[in-house]
Automatic annotation (TrEMBL):
The chain crosses the membrane at residues 42-61, 66-85, 105-124. This is RAB5 interacting factor. It comes from Umbra pygmaea. Pfam families: EMC6. Its main location: endoplasmic reticulum. GO terms for cellular component: endoplasmic reticulum membrane. It comes from the Eukaryota. It is a multi-pass membrane protein.
Length: 127
């Protein structure tokens, strides 16, 4: 990473410190999340990205029915659980417990997944 792109990711604070951007914290396992809502936003958007990717995969590989939905739920919840408990190592109790982090943005990602899955499946496999 060049110095120019590093400067874009950092915001200088009034006291001379440097605040890293949210996107630079996402991939840094030692990141400190001062703002709880910022970390919850990251969880939300990671779920949306997972929903789009899995929706496209499920639509291209003609996966149907309850099996597709169940596998999506397991992957979506599992990936995020590993992300916040193992990679970021946040204290779940600060965010209301493991269940609150696991369900953050789940229903919207589920709806997005269904829309993408249906669009791709219909476009590729329906006469």
């Amino acid at each position: 990473m060049t110095n120019g792109s590093k400067r874009k990711e950092e915001v200088h604070l009034a006291n001379g410190g440097v605040k890293k951007s949210t996107w630079s914290k996402v991939f840094n396992s030692t990141a400190v999340w001062e703002d709880k809502d910022e970390f919850l936003d990251v969880i939300y958007w990671i779920r949306q990205i997972i929903a789009i990717i899995l929706g496209v995969i499920w639509g291209v590989a003609p996966l149907k029915g309850f099996l597709g939905i169940a596998i999506f739920c397991v992957i979506n919840a599992g990936v995020l659980y590993v992300y916040f408990s193992s990679f970021q190592q946040v204290d779940e109790e600060e965010y209301g417990g493991t269940w609150e982090l696991t369900k953050e943005g789940f229903m919207t990602s589920f709806a997005l997944f269904l829309v993408v899955w249906i669009i791709f499946y219909t476009a590729l496999h329906y006469d």
